[in-house]
Amino acid sequence: MTKSVVKFISNFEKEEQWLNQMAAKGWHCIDYVFGRYLFEKGEPGEYIYRIQLLKNPINHLESTAYLNFLRETGVEVVASYSRWVYLRKKAADGPFDLFSDKESRIAHYKNIIYMFLPFAIMNLAFSLKIFTGQTVPGLIHVAAVVILSIPIARCYKRIRRLKKERLISE
After folding, report:
1. How is the chain split among helix, strand and coil, in percent rounded to 5?
2. N or C: which end of the chain has fewer CB within 10 A?
3. Average model confidence (pLDDT) across the chain
4. CA 97 to CA 34: how far, in whole Å?
5. CB atoms < 10 A from the CB of 91, how many?
6. Is-contact 61 28, C-beta < 8 A?
7. Cα Rg of the chain, angstroms
8. H/E element holding 129?
9. CA neighbor of 80 nearest in space, from 72, 70, 90
10. Confidence label for 78 from pLDDT (cuts 50, 70 and 90)
11. How far apart are CA 63 and CA 75, in angstroms?
12. By three-state DSSP, how is residue 82 classified?
């Protein structure tokens, strides 16, 4: 039995949490395409889900090698969208964490910032009329800057917290 759910979540950690809540109820994600999740009914709590932004496109040699390494450890690639990959592992195989230390987690947050930042800067430039010469800033560009600033700020805040934790533990 399968079901499709359309849902847009801008925070990958909340999305990951929601996928794991669905898995706890026996609904296992088997595909994802731009806000549409496809779930298959199975054993409650059978899988643990993780989402990661790859540094390179999924077909890049480095990404392919990394995903093959994950497969060897029992991780399954459920779906990919742009550079995002949706991963799962059998819960019976033990904990499933993609980041072994604070440095790798910080690097992941930086990758997310680097993905959003060019789009935010471009929209800021358009909203300030740098390219268009318009007298009224485009509200769409202003809205885009605000929307793109949210995940950037969220990741920056997490990086600062991780760096503080790193200093405390040293």
Report:
1. 50, 25, 25
2. C
3. 89
4. 24
5. 17
6. no
7. 19
8. none
9. 70
10. very high
11. 14
12. coil
Predicted local distance difference test score (pLDDT) of residue 145:
86
Helix/strand/coil for 81: strand
Residues 35 and 15: their CA atoms lie apart, in Å, by 11
Give residues with Cβ within 8 angstroms of 41, minimum separation 6. 1, 2, 3, 26, 27, 28
CA torsion 83-117-114-19 (nearest 10°) is -50
Helix axes 102-127, 139-169, angle to 10 degrees: 160
Q: What is the pTM of this model?
A: 0.81
Beta-ladder partners of 51: 86
CA angle 156, 153, 21 (to 5 degrees): 90
Write out the two tokens for 110.
Answer: 């930086």
- The label of the residue with tokens 């033990």 reads 94
Task: Specify the amino acid at residue 14.
Answer: K
At 132 the pLDDT is 55
